[in-house]
Design a protein that fits this description.
Layout: E1 8-15, E2 21-27, E3 35-42, E4 48-55, H1 59-62, E5 70-77, E6 82-94, E7 98-100, E8 103-112, H2 114-117, H3 122-141, H4 143-146, E9 157-159, E10 163-164, H5 165-175, E11 180-183, E12 190-191, E13 195-197, H6 201-211, E14 215-219, E15 222-226, E16 234-241, E17 258-259, E18 268-274, E19 283-289, E20 293-307, E21 310-318
Parallel strand pairs: 11-15, 16-19
Antiparallel strand pairs: 1-2, 1-5, 3-4, 3-20, 4-8, 5-6, 6-8, 7-8, 9-13, 10-12, 14-15, 17-18, 18-21, 19-20, 20-21
């Protein structure tokens, strides 16, 4: 439960190639230096691209932000639970500077899951090195002489008959140094004729999870593979309610909930609250907004926003306790 949603703080943590990390902290009392962001999240396997804008950042610090570097966004309240990670990913674009009055705005975008998509298996890494060496030999010896040397590539990881999707996913992930924070397959698939893990590790993992009735998504930089056919999720005891005039209570609900027009099992409810850094994909939240809606539901998607006068979390939760 929230204590006091007061004293907002935002931090951007940048991981440099030399192993060092640089932290940029903004608090609501410092008007000349501020950080704004839009951070979407959800249980789809597509990339979620976030945008961060930093005001009046020095040139020396701006030059540190390079495409491909890992970055984290932390946010919270000084009088609640302090700063907490809400997203991380790899920078995919650094935008040109813009001006807003006397202020200079520096912005960049980053994508969650980008590093996972780029992960390589041991055989892929070895074959890349072999191919690179072959091209070098071709330049030195010429095409004709270079062809005299046979290039033998490493084969993809293979599994014996009877291997199942649970074992294969774990082995493929470990080989590519992909960390899985949760793996729960509702119907483990067995491959009677064996299996060859050919292709990008992330795609292999995604396809095997799908064949096993599970979904793959990233949650605060952690890969999650789970069964979402029932009300399961991260039970973080998050209560969202609206304060009543003249009465104590209220835990951040900014407006009454709204229902989408869908009538199928994926129908959702939209909820807007003051920024709650405990919430992410798969969180279980209890919403109290009588007489409109009261219940505990799993978070499907949402976004964190920080801007002028805005420090909020908007989420979509499944209308039905059992869905998807």
């Amino acid at each position: 439960m929230a204590k006091f949603l007061w004293g907002r703080m935002v931090m951007i943590r940048l991981f440099l190639k030399n192993g060092k990390k640089i932290e940029f902290l903004a608090v609501h009392t410092h008007k000349s230096f501020s950080i704004n962001f839009n951070v979407p999240f959800g249980d789809s396997s597509t990339l979620h691209t976030s945008t961060v804008t930093i005001m009046n950042l020095s040139k020396a610090h701006r030059d540190m932000f390079k495409k491909g570097l890992k970055v984290q966004v932390l946010a919270g309240y000084k009088q609640d639970n302090g700063l907490k990670l809400i997203a991380e990913g790899a920078i995919n674009k650094v935008n040109p500077l813009t001006a807003s009055g006397a202020d200079i705005q520096f912005s960049f975008t980053f994508a969650e899951g980008q590093q996972l998509l780029q992960a390589q298996s041991t055989s892929e890494k070895a074959n890349s090195a072999i191919k690179k060496n072959a091209k070098h030999q071709e330049k030195v010896l010429g095409k004709t002489d270079a062809k005299k040397f046979k290039v033998k590539l490493h084969t993809a990881m293979s599994f014996a008959p009877g291997a199942n999707s649970n074992v294969i996913i774990r082995r493929v992930a470990a080989d590519a140094h992909v960390k899985i924070s949760k793996l729960k397959l509702p119907k483990v698939k067995t491959f009677k004729k064996g299996y060859v893990a050919k292709g990008k590790p992330y795609k292999i993992i995604h396809d095997l999870a799908k064949a096993s009735g599970a979904q793959v998504y990233e949650r605060r930089g952690q890969l999650v593979i789970e069964d979402e056919t029932n009300l399961s999720g991260k039970n973080e005891h998050i209560l969202i309610s609206m304060g009543t005039k003249g009465k104590p209570g209220g835990t951040g609900l900014m407006e009454h909930v709204s229902f989408n027009d869908s009538t199928d099992s994926n129908a959702t409810i939209s909820v807007k609250t003051y920024l709650r850094n405990q919430i992410s994909t798969g969180s279980l939240v209890t919403i109290k907004d009588p007489p409109y809606f009261t219940g505990t539901r799993r978070v499907q998607s949402g976004e964190f926003n920080c801007g002028d006068g805005d420090f909020s979390t908007t989420i979509e939760v499944y209308q039905n306790a059992k869905s998807k």
